[in-house]
Design goal:
Layout (H helix, E strand, L loop, with lengths): L11 H27 L5 H10 L5 E2 H7 L4 H13 L3 E5 L7 E5 L1 H25 L2 H19 L2 H9 L1
Antiparallel strand pairs: 1-3, 2-3
Helix pairs in contact: 1-5
Length: 163
């Protein structure tokens, strides 16, 4: 006789179902988004960098790391590949010589103008099919609250409630 898996306790079932739904939606989004991005000759990380630099005069690597979903360890390799393709250039920062300023080249700006509207436009119908404007705003609010909770250690939130 096979041992049975322990049953989830009642209070955690809604939590587990929510986590599973969130992860499944994330994977579906990443899969759909990556297919669209790859049609423009970019990886999702490369697109994130190009989209973040688009319509800006550029920024330091530190600023770029903070504004993208690319980890600091991955950013150098992404920038290396984009630079080798002539999409970005690295220059000494005009504000701080210790920092590197990254900006799109003319080719990078053309790539941004082609890819950004196409990727956003390709994803929009999936969101609009699933959510109305009010639901989209509510979901954004809930996801921001969840993100903040996950980024705040539990000890800090307990101290806040005791004050």
């Amino acid at each position: 006789m096979r041992p049975r898996c322990p049953q989830a306790k009642r209070p955690s079932e809604p939590y587990l179902a929510m986590v599973r739904a969130l992860v499944e939606a994330y994977f579906a989004f990443v899969d759909r988004d990556a297919k669209t991005i790859r049609r423009h000759g970019l990886t999702p990380s490369q697109f994130d960098v190009v989209a973040t630099l688009g319509n800006t005069p550029g920024m330091t690597c530190r600023e770029l790391s903070a504004k993208t979903l690319v980890t600091k360890g991955t950013l150098t390799g992404v920038l290396d590949r984009l630079a080798s393709r002539g999409v970005v250039e690295r220059l000494p920062s005009p504000r701080d010589r210790r920092s590197i300023h990254v900006r799109l080249t003319a080719e990078g700006a053309r790539l941004f103008r082609r890819s950004f509207p196409a990727v956003v436009g390709a994803m929009r119908p999936y969101f609009e099919r699933a959510l109305g404007a009010r639901e989209a705003r509510r979901l954004r609010t809930l996801l921001a609250r969840l993100k903040q909770s996950l980024e705040t250690p539990l000890e800090e939130s307990r101290k806040e409630t005791r004050r």
